[in-house]
Amino acid sequence: MATATATAPALQAETEAARGVLGSFLRDFSAPLGPEELPPWSPQGSGALSRAEARGELAELAGGLLAARNAPPLLTAALIHAATDEVLQTDLSTFEKSGVEEEQGDQQRLTLLDGVSLQRYFFNKLRDICCEWQKQLPLLRPLKRFLFVSIHAIRNSRRKMEDRHVSLLEFNQLFGMMDDIDRAYFAVFDGHGGVDAANYAATHLHVNMALHDEFLKNPSEALKCSFQQTDEMFLLKAKRERLRNGTTGVCALIVGNRLHIAWLGDSQVMLVRQGKAVTLMEPHKPEREDERTRIEALGGYVTYLDCWRVNGTLAVSRAIGDIYQKPYVSGSADVDSFELTGSEDYLVLACDGFFDTVKPCDVVDLVLDHLMKNKGDGLKTAERLVAAAKENGSSDNITVIVVFLRDPQDILADFLRDPKSLVISEGAQDSPFNFFSSETNNQSDSQTTRSA
Question: What is the enzyme's main class (predicted)?
C-alpha cells in the first residue's frame, strides 16, 4: 500500500476545522473561571488526587470535554499535552490539601491535591491555549502511519457496564514525542465488583508507561512496570476511599516495527496473519498450574465453586486492585514483544465476555464473512464480533477492539483471489510474525464505534 501524504488543500481544510473547534470552545467558555466556579465537567472529577494521578486525571477530563465538541483527535491530543505540561511545571504546593495520609505499610506520607482548585486552574490554562492557537495554530504533526480501528462495547445482560477501553492513535502527540517513530496504544479493562479500578487503569496506565524512564529505550519493560505502578497507585486510592473492586487488563503498544503486549487476568489479545489465528498469550486463571503454585506458596488456596477461584472468590489470579485479595491476586503483568514486518491482517483485543464464547479460529471466519457482506468495509467489524459472542450465549459485558494492520479491502481481495492460501489454524504458533514496514501506511479514516 502506498505511503499516504497530505495534500495542501487537505492540510488547509484540517487547519480550518481546528480553528472552528477552537472558536466554538471559546464561544462556549467566553471567560475564565472565577475563584469559586466549578469546572465544566461532572462532579465525579472533583475529588482529591495525588501528584502521580494529576496528569492522567486532567487529561481524561479535558479529553471528554473536547470530544463532546467534536474536536479532531490530533488537535485534542496536542491541546491536552500543552495544557497539562504547563500546569504540571508550576508549583503544585498551592493546591495541597491540609490533611495527609500515611501510605499503606510504611511511614511515607501521601500529600493530596485539591481536585476542584487544580482542575479550575487547568481549565483556565486550557482556555488560554485555545485563545493562542486560534490566532496562530502551531504545526500539528500528522500521523505517518494510519490504522483502521473498529470498537464496540455493550453492557449486555449485566446490571452495570464495568468494561473500559482505550484507543490512542495520537500517542506521540499526547506525550509530546517528536521523534520519527510511530506509536499507538490500545487497551481493554474488564472490571469486577465495580468500575472504579477499570476507570483508573484506563486513565493512568498509559500515562505511567509513557513517563517511565525506560520507555524510549525499552517499551516492554515500561509497559510491565506501568501495570505494577498503576496497581500500587489504585491500592492507595482504594484504601483511602474504601474501594474493594479490581480489573483485568490487556494492552497492545505498537512502536515502529515492534509490537509489545501485556496482560493481567483473562482479557486477551490475538493476532490474525494471512487468515491464521496466532496465539500471543495465555490468560491468568487460578487453574493454571503455575498460578496455583504461586497462590498456595503465599498461603492462599484455589477451589472450585462453579469455576476455579482464588480463595473461593475471584475467577482470575492477577488483576489491578482487589485490595483484600493481595498478594494472592497479583498485580504483576506478563509481557511479550515481537518483531513486525508486513503481512498481518489485524489484532483483536477483548474481555473474557467475548473470548469465553468465541474461539480464535471463529474470529477469522466472522471477520471475513463480515467483510464479504460489506464489500470490504471494516467499520462495524467489532460490532459483528460482539453480536457473535452474544448469540453464542455470553451474558457478560462485552468489549472488542479490532485494529486492522492492513486495509480491510486488501484483506478481502487477497482472500477472494486465493481462498486456499488463507488456511485457518487455531492457536498457530509461528512467531515471530510480520507487520508492515516503515514505508507502508494503513487506512487513514479510523473509525470508533461505542455503545454503553
Answer: hydrolase
